[in-house]
Amino acid sequence: MIQKYREQFNANFTVEKYHQFIKDLETGFPPIPFRVAETPIFIPKVLKEKLIAAGEEIISLIKQDNFKALTDKAIPTKWNVPNETAHPHFLTFDYGLCKDEKGEVAPMLIEMQGFPSLYGFQSHLAHNYIESFELDKNLSPYFNELTQSSYFALLKKVLIGEHDPLQVGLMDVDAPNQKTAIDFFVTAKQLGIKILSLNEIRKEGKQLFYEENGNKIQLKRIYNRLIFDEIEDNISIFKNSFDPREELDIEWITHPNWFYRISKYTMPFLRSEFVPETHFLNTIQSIPEDLENYVLKPLFSFAGMGVIIDVTSSDIKAIKDPENWILQRKVTYEPLIEAPDAGVKAEIRMMYLWPEGEEPQLCINLARLSRGKMIGVRYNKDFDWVGGTVGLMQ
Length: 394
Hints:
By secondary structure, the protein is α+β, with helices and mostly antiparallel strands. The protein is built from nine helices and 18 strands.
């Protein structure tokens, strides 16, 4: 990566600095329940350009006139929400950092979502890395010449628009206690919107309300962080609030259907040097002879749940709903991030905002470091120099 910054960082790193960094990161907020890595990633210009190019190829597919027709089957019938918007307000693309045939660092698409990520926290995280570790002030997590100020102005434009911030609710099932609630708190502090659990919202006719200091406030927009699959077995939760699938006088930021349209379901339609060969399992004519080079993924699962890494032909034959699975060529992550004792694997999420009536804008990034078999908390227990982080660029 950017070698001079890596060498400087590692030479100056101490465990005491890391602990102080975490303390500063949590100041004014509840403790962060997930692991934050010891280091940022220093993204060189050539990798930055490849990440940008990869995203442009994906977005060109999403902007095709027939994209909704291609992805209509992605939306489960039971979770189809009316009044879908023309486009999502968020795009996030996850890339594993690999090496290509020339031995050069290359991003390979792993996952994609038309759903928000940690848009508030990543700015807060980058700022604290730079301050706590006294990094070069020319380093930035932003793209397109954004600064922290202009970035949050753009985020405000997307989330709030012309509404009163108090009429915009950031909603999740039990929002203050979600694992990523630190992002909710940072966003609310920056933009003044209300953090709401589902059961705090009441429906009257087609309108939604919540109470604040005894006053009833109508919601005009919902910044939706609720993932339907997480309440699959608890659908009765809507009885004490509202059912998002009903006709409502509400603006969704972003509309729930985009969570399904832009997902693993989209990947078989992509042809790019940055996208691994991917097929819907029900379209496979014959099982590949080199099955050890493939991974089997359920379309509707998250955080690596259900993924079969070491696939066998019996695994494939045992699948009862092959239309809901993809077979994807394995991506080999390279341990490119130099920790004091060994190389560490990395994944970078490119995060876009898409204002209504405008073009999608690449804004910021999220990264994760791993020493385990897969990226994710459950695969990296008891390791250091792993966890959530951010990419910094000159």
